[in-house]
Design brief:
By secondary structure, the chain is α+β, with helices and mostly antiparallel strands. The chain is built from three helices and nine strands, in the order ααβββββββββα.
Length: 194
């Protein structure tokens, strides 16, 4: 039996270049189809993480205020916002307040009073509140500069996905309300207050 060149060629197995190119093209098409869904999932996770971390910061401030019998405050990390339009994208700080000045938004320079600093939000996430800081007194209630009870709302979301609102009651309890873009717009671009 003699071995010819055609017999040798038929014994090799594998992919041809054309088969490999077709496989890569199909994979690229499937990735392009799945990409919008993946972006939505990532954005939804960033929004949920931002609102959950903010709610954790509120819970820590409330617990610390009750434990110490004094004021604890949640405020903006980078104090670039104003009372009317606070910017929360850099995150929030939680600290024990020895000044008992509910209008003071700057975290203390003494690191021992700093209890927590949240992570910056994802770049596609918008975070707005109707307060620049929130102070809890020793009874675990949110107070204003005059010492009266004060609540607030914080919204985390995107026009491409939806909104998660953290609503703080006058008693200092925080709860999350999930809102669609339509509901958020119908509420005047804000969260429910009760």
């Amino acid at each position: 039996m003699s071995i010819t060149r055609s017999n040798i060629r038929n014994n090799f197995t594998g992919f041809t270049l054309i088969e490999l190119m077709v496989t890569v093209a199909i994979a690229a098409i499937l990735i392009m189809i799945a990409l919008p869904s993946l972006r939505s999932i990532v954005l939804g996770n960033q929004i949920q993480a931002a609102s959950s971390e903010f709610q954790s910061a509120l819970a820590l401030a409330r617990a610390e205020a009750i434990k110490r019998g004094g004021d604890a405050r949640v405020t903006i990390v980078a104090n670039t916002g104003t009372t009317n339009a606070p910017i929360w994208t850099s995150g929030a700080t939680v600290f024990y307040d020895t000044t008992t000045d509910a209008n003071k938004n700057v975290p203390p320079t003494d690191a021992s009073k700093l209890l927590m600093q949240t992570s910056p939000m994802g770049t596609a996430v918008t975070g707005t509140t109707n307060f620049s800081s929130l102070t809890y007194n020793g009874l675990g209630r949110t107070i204003s500069a005059s010492g009266g009870l004060a609540g607030g709302t914080a919204a985390f979301g995107s026009a491409d996905y939806g909104w998660r609102c953290v609503v703080v009651s006058l008693q200092g309890r925080a709860r999350t309300v999930v809102m669609s873009n339509a509901d958020y717009a119908a509420a005047g671009g804000g969260c429910p207050t009760n």
